[in-house]
């Protein structure tokens, strides 16, 4: 038999203070030497690599879970944890085991041998099974026969008023309304694999999204005109003329172009020839071309609109 769900939540104490395991729903029977099973089940932080890879597993997965549980009890957290389900799995399969310096040499050696990714070389995976683990120096002060016979005095014995006393449980859980477990699924094991991780919020899709999604179109930033001479104005926009005493030209929308032309005729645009027109284009040095008038149509303009060059 393989347990496949060893974790702190499934380890209880009876009224005498002795350890009891609960939740045998993931157990698998008749797993003898040389036989494997491929069911993907358990709690990610305590699952062995061969379960995650679906390469087939046997009773050696429980020894990995024991190593993860002991690491959790000695340090306060499982050995491999990530921000989400996918990253946790990646660390279990690839990351190096990190051991805090305050652990004893026996504890470090036991964790290393239990948390070997190669299941065949894992402590307890050999023909000796549990005897290999019991013989480790970390347990040298444990009398296993007395422990199994419940002759060892537990370090803690809960004080209970009755068989139904739940005062030792967190009120966060005892205040919840009990809900019956659903009936066994009628789907096959392979069909249930499609819904793996369904209770999570699409971890492989949304884990990198940092901003809130909105159906409203985003407002584009204004185009740069003054600091980028290659940036052209959008179609439908026109640049206002450069007038005397006025700063750099600005863009006007088509709606702003409609203005009273009579006000334009009253403007005196001949008062400053230096600011009324750009300088003529200078020919490259060394090239002798016939000089042409920069503005050949000036003479045909009305007198009050001519530019003095």
TrEMBL record:
Keywords: ATP-binding, Kinase, Nucleotide-binding, Phosphoprotein, Serine/threonine-protein kinase, Transferase. InterPro entries: AGC-kinase_C (IPR000961), Kinase-like_dom_sf (IPR011009), Pkinase_C (IPR017892), Prot_kinase_dom (IPR000719), Ser/Thr_kinase_AS (IPR008271). It comes from the Eukaryota. Residues 140-210 form the AGC-kinase C-terminal domain. One of its GO terms (molecular function) is ATP binding. Residues 1-139 form the Protein kinase domain. Pfam families: Pkinase (PF00069), Pkinase_C (PF00433). This is Ribosomal protein S6 kinase b, polypeptide 1b. It comes from Iconisemion striatum.
């Amino acid at each position: 038999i393989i347990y496949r769900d060893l974790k702190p939540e499934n380890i209880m104490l009876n009224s005498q203070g002795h350890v009891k395991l609960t939740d045998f729903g993931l157990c698998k029977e008749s797993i003898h030497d040389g036989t494997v099973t491929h069911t993907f089940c358990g709690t990610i932080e305590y699952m062995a690599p061969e379960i995650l890879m679906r390469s087939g597993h046997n009773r050696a997965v429980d020894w990995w879970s024991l190593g993860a549980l002991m690491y959790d009890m000695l340090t306060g957290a499982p050995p491999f944890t990530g921000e989400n389900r996918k990253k946790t799995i990646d660390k279990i399969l690839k990351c190096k085991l990190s051991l805090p310096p305050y652990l004893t040499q026996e504890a470090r050696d036991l964790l290393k041998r239990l948390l070997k990714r190669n299941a065949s070389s894992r402590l307890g995976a050999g023909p000796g099974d549990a005897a290999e683990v019991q013989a480790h120096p970390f347990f040298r002060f444990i009398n296993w026969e007395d422990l199994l016979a419940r002759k060892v005095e537990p370090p803690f014995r809960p004080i209970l008023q009755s068989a139904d006393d739940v005062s030792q449980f967190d009120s966060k859980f005892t205040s919840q309304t009990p809900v019956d477990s659903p009936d066994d699924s009628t789907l096959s094991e392979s069909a249930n694999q499609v819904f793996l991780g369904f209770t999570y919020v699409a971890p492989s899709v949304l884990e990198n999204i940092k901003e809130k999604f909105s159906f409203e179109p985003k407002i584009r930033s204004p185009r740069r005109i003054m600091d980028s001479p290659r940036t052209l104005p959008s179609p439908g926009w026109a640049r206002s003329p450069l007038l005397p005493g006025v700063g750099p030209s600005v863009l006007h929308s088509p709606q702003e172009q409609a203005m009273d032309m009579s006000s334009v005729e009253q403007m005196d645009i001949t008062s400053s020839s230096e600011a009324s027109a750009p300088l003529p284009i200078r020919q490259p040095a060394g090239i002798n071309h016939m000089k042409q008038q920069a503005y050949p149509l000036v003479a045909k303009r009305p007198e009050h609109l001519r530019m003095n060059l």
